[in-house]
Amino acid sequence: MSTGRPNASPALCHNGFVVGELLASAHAAALHSKPDVRAAALLRIARVQTAVDRSQARRTFEQALDEIRRISGRDGAFLLEHARLFAAAVAPDMLPSIPAEHRMPRHFEADLLGRTMIEHGNLEAALEFVMRYDDASTYPFPTAGMLIDRVDAQERLALVRRAAAAWREAHGDGFILVFQYRWKLLPDEEARAIVREIVRFALDEPDKPTRATYERTIQITSSREHRLFQVLPILRQVDQPLLESLLSSHPQFAAAARRFPYGMESIMEEARGRMKSNPPSRGGFGMLGNPRDFPYFSALMQGSQDGDFEQAMEHAQQQYRIDAGPEGRNMAPAEFWPSASQFRSILYSAGKRLGAGASRYLARIEDPDLRLFAQIELAAGLAGLPEFPGIQRGLRSRRPMPTPAEGPPVLGASGETIRCPKCNWVPRLRDRWRCKCGHSWNTFETAGACPACRYQWDVTACLSCGETSAHSGWYVRR
After folding, report:
1. Per-residue pLDDT tens for 449-470?
2. Which of 15, 169, 211, 390 could be 341's S-S partner, Cβ–Cβ 3.0 to 4.6 Å?
3. Taking each helix axis from N to C terminus, what angle separates 73-90 and 54-69, rounded to the nearest 10 degrees?
4. With contact defined as beta carbons under 8 Å apart, do 131 and 103 qualify?
């Protein structure tokens, strides 16, 4: 099998040349920057270099770590933890040597690390990471599901069994999504045993209110009956007697099963039929976080469709004036500024849409540090890499609390007080979060479950301080 690219198009060859030039000039600029900017830029350069020269990428990453370890205090700690994400992309074997502060929820971090390994071609490292992961309560089920499509038959079977073992130990919700679509990899007897355990656990656990709506015709308000609906197709194929018993005693489950005989399989089949007759004309962006950022996201989405990123640039420049303003200046390293994240996303998206011509937007970024970060992300887009997640931090000497929304505070299902674990901000009924599907709603009215697409959010961003916390951590039990 040939490993060359004799049929590479002129555009691809041109992009490769431009990527090399962008990285070379970015590396030179980084070496003349202040320590925190230099370290952050080297991390991002190393990530892009994985697309062209993995040996060089590792050397650049090691250079970045050396820089970070010379930075003391809070900034050094932020950057060192940030380096763990880049290690997953560049050199996963170095992860154990980089301390974890766990400022983000552990299950969220574990899944982010695993997905980053996969997206950057480190499949063997990702497989080892998932198979040897030793904390069942934060097991990265989504990563295991992604890996199953990318490994051989023997490894697929091992992954399903490892995920099942983690579920048996801690009963993490993420296993159901893996099992729903991968159970046929198991022998029928083994699948039957697992689905019976899931049913037994659902019946033994206290029922909780939920709100799951399918195709606007079926609504399930019982967490127990919703769990049964999730494993409906498996029950129908491997344990019909148990299914009949459950249908007779759980009315919401029975109604959903009549409408969708094979659960999510039926729903997905209907959705595919609709798409064939009415294909979507364009894609979209997921928006999550502060509603004040939604105009920026909309402008970025529009630019990705029509190639005009001027409006998105205006929003990012407004955010930069907030981050760099004399009153309440953002004291976090510039790598973590919201404006840095916005400029990076714009140049990445512009590179994907416009190719090398997107470089004209770099001149619109007045801050040399933020321009450097955006240049590296432009190179990532031209190199065909996935967009890299950005962590945003706002550290201000004088940070006023936001004006409370009108109306009473939102309460938990059992009347619990709800407040941000990081800054104690209390959300109101009229506050809104945005799901990746585009739906806007108050996330605490549904315990983090999107009413439109039914995605269960395990983490929630604070609309005041911008920090992300486990959704469950917002509820104050009395």
Report:
1. 887 777 788 888 888 776 778 8
2. 390
3. 170
4. no
